[in-house]
Amino acid sequence: MDFSLCPNYFLPNRTLGDNLSTLCSDSTPLGRVVLGLYGNLLPVTVSNFKSMCLASNSTASSYKNTLVHKIFPGRYFLAGRQGRPDKGEVRPPHDLARNTETVDSKAFSLTHSRPGVVSLSLSENDDDEEIKLDPGYRNVEFLITTGPGPCPDLDNKNIVFGTVLEGLDVVTAIASIPTYQPSERIRQFNDLAEFFGDERAQNARAIWNRPLTTVYISDCGELKVTQPPLSPSLP
């Protein structure tokens, strides 16, 4: 996955319908993150993730040109939120497999023990409730832990299916991007509104922890790994 910064995606003069590919021609590359995936342990989760990396970009069914929409400093960032492609969100293909591993206890055996852990977001999922109620809904939102320490509160709730092999410095750079943090007074008002069932409280929380500079997946795909040649036998 290649990550980039876009200076003008959320500017007020953007045209409705414009997407990241048209608005971010002058983006600044952050770098490439190479992920290793645990396909033998979690074949369905990994297969779906690879499908989202390899899907045709013309159908808006790829992670390419979609946002890192939340950053939680010192913990993890979220990407792959479902919704409208013109808002930098993901639209999974209709033929994506239903992930039966989300109800298999064995799928939750790996932990968020260090920076660079790649996990399918279940408890931390940020998709709208209306989208989740769709019978064809397929969860493709994922998180990557950023460190410096582990995130044990994510264990047994989200499915760890990969790790960062190269580009942990890029992950650290994403984690350092400033985010919107509401004041304590706003948080208190929001908590009170949520207690009384005010739907506006949930809408307000949607922008919390959103990066103040647009960071997005500018490219993604699969790297073919070849086995190195065997060393000649010693005499």
Automatic annotation (TrEMBL):
EC numbers for this chain: 5.2.1.8
Membrane-spanning intervals of the chain: none
Residues in PPIase cyclophilin-type domain copies: 20-222
Broad enzyme group: isomerase
Gene3D superfamilies per UniProt: Cyclophilin-like
GO terms, molecular function: monooxygenase activity; peptidyl-prolyl cis-trans isomerase activity
Keyword Metal-binding attached: no
Classification via PROSITE patterns: CSA_PPIASE_2 (PS50072)
Catalytic activity from the UniProt record: [protein]-peptidylproline (omega=180) = [protein]-peptidylproline (omega=0)
Keywords of this entry: Isomerase, Monooxygenase, Oxidoreductase, Rotamase
UniProt family annotation: Belongs to the cyclophilin-type PPIase family.
Biological function: PPIases accelerate the folding of proteins. It catalyzes the cis-trans isomerization of proline imidic peptide bonds in oligopeptides.
Record PANTHER family: PEPTIDYL-PROLYL CIS-TRANS ISOMERASE CYP28, CHLOROPLASTIC (PTHR47875:SF1)
Protein name: Peptidyl-prolyl cis-trans isomerase
Native source species: Stylosanthes scabra
Gene transcribed to yield this protein: CYP28_1
